[in-house]
Amino acid sequence: MYLSPFGVTPAKVSKIQEKFGPAAFMIVKEEPFRLCEVHGFGFLTVDQIAVKAKHFRADDPLRIKAAILHIMSEAEGEGHLYLKREDIIERVEF
Questions:
Q1: pTM, whole model, 2 decimals?
Q2: How many domains does the chain have?
Q3: Domain of 56?
Q4: Dist CA 39 CA 52 (whole Å)
């Protein structure tokens, strides 16, 4: 399996297949940051997979978008309703 070298279990592969259906393999291969949409896959884990598998650069727009969504999700969990642009930039660490 494509994700085995990254420690992704068969149970998590099933979650990916449930979420994306027949397009799962292509989505994981071409847009790995979409794994963040699957319960159990956080940005930090997906980032490691994406960087190793696709060699994403730190400034890749898909990577930056996923990082911002991760930060916003964390902020929501902390009770924030919004973050200022400066606060988002401050929280992003590549």
A1: 0.77
A2: 1
A3: 4-91
A4: 21
